Amino acid sequence: MLVLSRKSGQTIVVGQDLEIVVLEIRGNRVKLGFSGAAEVPIHRSEIHEWITAEPPALHHAECA
Questions:
Q1: Residue 17, in any domain of the structure
Q2: Has residue 42 got a pLDDT over 80?
Q3: Which long-range contacts (CB under 8 A, 24 or more apart) does 40-45 make?
Q4: Residues 32, 24: contact at Cβ < 8 Å?
């Protein structure tokens, strides 16, 4: 695991396709912005777990 310290407005680059910007730090909460190629999915961990746990057919039915 890589551990970095960043201040508000500073950026982290992952590979060539993903940039993470520290937008705001308020108390114990950090607001991050992610930008990158549209084909690279970015999800919160609980959403990622839901996507990988359910059969794909159910995802399309619930999104329709």
A1: yes
A2: yes
A3: 42/18
A4: no
